[in-house]
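Morning F.,

Quick status update on the modeling queue. The single chain you submitted on Monday has been processed. Sequence for confirmation:
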Amino acid sequence: MRLFLSDLHLEDPASTVFRSFSELLARESAHVSAIYLLGDLTEVWVGDDDDGALAVALEEVLRQAARHCRIFLMHGNRDFLLGSAFADRTGCTLLEDPHTLDDHTLLSHGDAFCTDDEAYQQMRTLFRSREWQQDILSRSLQERRALAEQLRAESSQANANKAQNIMDVSLREVDRVATAGGSRRIIHGHTHRPGRHDRPWGRRYVLGAWERCGWLARQAEPGSEPELICFPLRD
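Structure tokens below.
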């Protein structure tokens, strides 16, 4: 059995979302073979040298869970600076986006499918470039935290002026990627629009964001169709 989650947007280790996530990892890691975290695990990640409360707490809960099952991390559009040093310290494995499992299940954060938003795709290319990341990571933590706040504000303002359909995935792009890779199912997040969608090549599962409730997809065994589950967050 394996689990798939995305879009927790963790910010505060004392929050309901973080406590719910921590308890889920502790409970499920003892029973499943793998847990896949498909991007935007945190609201922002300023580098693996971050010594803030969230980074410290997150490192501990992931390290504990990785002792019992395999934990995989994929970058999202918020935590793209998460690197190999953090993965090594926690015992997690970084995945490229997209990544295909042994049963023709394609995993992605999902933002690469939003090709109708050309401005976002240009920004995504910049933020994922080695040169840009090296420049940012050479700066002090204080500078990086200030830049992160600036980018968040600019992103919120830009999204407020975009049509909702522009920020959703392009089905043409989804179908192209699925067909080219022989995918039978795709699991992704990013859009905050959870649901299951039948396509000519198979099924697309969209994970929800951890806002009013938690979301995950549970696959009983390779090749089986996942169950998309919504559950209450811890009080």
